[in-house]
Design a protein that fits this description.
24% helix; globular; 12 strands; 258 residues; binds biotinyl-5-AMP
């Protein structure tokens, strides 16, 4: 694995591992010893890959498992915006690597390929003394997708002969994240990021179902993402701003995290 040229020119470093428990956990340990980034950590496989809320991220060899340690932002409250910045970067990297696929972003943190889960983002924050530090974890199914999930998952290898490798997607992703961070301008450019994110949004303007914390599911028209990143849903009972949850996809549209 190698960083892209822009990432290298901007001073990002790379730690490339054959195996780790979770690249996000590796990042956290390094932050505890003073690391502040910009640093990419990439592993060929993970033994304890994690999704959000303690969910498992199935991590066999052949896929992309990466975390970016980043602290060049002024306030902790801006950290959640990095999930959108990363989603935009992922769409750009996928478009450049595998333009023939149909890729979308699913609020809040998923990448879809033909409406099936291709990858996800696990954004975590660590308070590094005076400066907040973000860990942006990204998993993408390049060679393998799990088959026994309650909803469909796909891998880029489904594209056949022209499918890109994990190394080529990674190099592009490191460069496209630099470019998206430039647009974001430490928060000042969040509107432009939000607009670009919405152009790839799954279900925008359509009736969708959203699983909330606990077991509640609500349905409504996905109107937009607001200036703070909340999903705005027009339900039969009125408009709701949703801070946390999962947009559901697939014929059964069940199973949190889909
Ligand atoms: C995510 O969580 O989608 C975020 C995944 C982030 C993984 C990266 S890999 C590098 C870094 N290091 C880590 O340890 N993590 C990050 P969430 O929305 O909670 O989705 C988790 C759910 O997706 C699980 O409950 C499964 O249903 C499903 N899932 C697990 N492995 C999958 C896979 N390889 N492909 C598609 N879906 C998967």
């Amino acid at each position: 694995m190698q960083l892209g040229l822009i990432a290298r020119a901007q001073g990002a470093r790379l730690l490339s591992l054959a195996e780790t428990d979770s690249t996000n956990d590796e990042a956290r340990r390094l932050i505890e010893t003073g690391e502040r980034g910009p640093l990419w950590i990439v592993a060929a496989r993970q033994t304890k890959g994690r999704g959000r809320l303690g969910r498992e991220w199935i991590s066999p060899e052949g896929n992309l498992y990466a975390s970016f340690v980043f602290s060049d932002f002024p306030e902790t409250r801006l950290a959640p915006q990095l999930g959108f910045v990363t989603g935009v970067a992922a769409m750009r990297a996928l478009g450049a690597s595998a333009g023939q696929g149909s890729f979308k972003l699913k609020w809040p943190n998923d990448m879809l390929f033909d409406s099936a889960k291709l990858g996800g983002i696990l954004l975590e924050g660590v308070s590094g003394g005076a400066t907040p530090v973000a860990i942006i974890g990204i998993g993408m199914n390049i060679a393998h997708a799990p088959e026994d999930l309650p909803y469909p998952a796909r891998a880029l290898s489904d594209l056949g002969a022209g499918a890109p490798t994990a190394a080529s997607v990674f190099a592009r992703l490191t460069d496209s994240l630099c470019a998206a961070l430039d647009v974001w301008r430490r928060g000042e450019g969040f509107d432009a990021i939000r607009e670009e994110w919405l152009r790839s949004a799954h279900g925008l303007g359509e009736r969708i179902r959203v699983a909330l914390a606990g077991s509640e599911t609500i349905e409504g028209v996905f109107e937009t993402i607001d200036a703070t990143g909340r999903l705005m849903l027009l339900t039969d009972q009125g408009r709701r701003a949703i801070d946390a949850g999962d947009v559901l996809v697939g014929p059964r549209a069940a199973g949190a995290g889909a």
